[in-house]
Amino acid sequence: MAENKAGVGPPSGVSRLIKCRDPVHPPGPPTVVKVIDTSKTSVTLEWTTPVFDGGLEIIGYIIEMFWREAGQTKQLTFTIEGLTENNEYEFRVRAKNDAGYSQPREAFSSVIIKEPQIEPTADLSGITKQLITCKAGSNIRIKCCWSDGPKPSW
Question: Which residues does the UniProt record annotate as the domain Fibronectin type-III (predicted)?
Fold first, then answer.
């Protein structure tokens, strides 16, 4: 009912229901974006969740390459394939909730796509218990097994 100087009026109709909740916003950007692996044609990125979720659950991430969408995921890692070896790329990631998208977080630096260089390792366990002597300046030949990277060419 409403009341003023003219008197009491009839009650108003029932208003629609309103659900009260805290305000919601788009999330903050992921806190760290880094490259964790590369190959001749791909890169794998990893990031951490935003500090601020906007009051809603993070429902996914958008990965951008040169500021165009390269993929979407709900995980904290993503592999982009089909890249060209020895080309330089830049990547960034946005978080998403039901209120919208975060500002992008860029990877620390640009990335040149190439096969990682893995240093070979030698298994010397067969000779470490033996006493080996030689004259200074002389050549010595040791047979061993190589693993991991390419065999040395020297």
Answer: 26-116
Coil, strand or helix at 48: coil
Q: In 3D, which of 22, 1, 25, 26 has the Cα closest to residue 11? A: 1
Distance CA 154, CA 150 (A): 12
Backbone angles phi, psi at 42, to 5 degrees: -150, 165
Instruction: Return averaged pLDDT per consecutive 10 residues of the chain, 154 residues in all.
Output: 83 85 92 92 96 96 95 98 95 97 90 82 72 81 71 58
Give the closest residue to 30 by CA, choosing from 55, 56, 60.
60
Distance between CA atoms of 110 and 78, rounded to whole angstroms?
16
pTM of the model: 0.67
Place of tokens 């809603």: 56
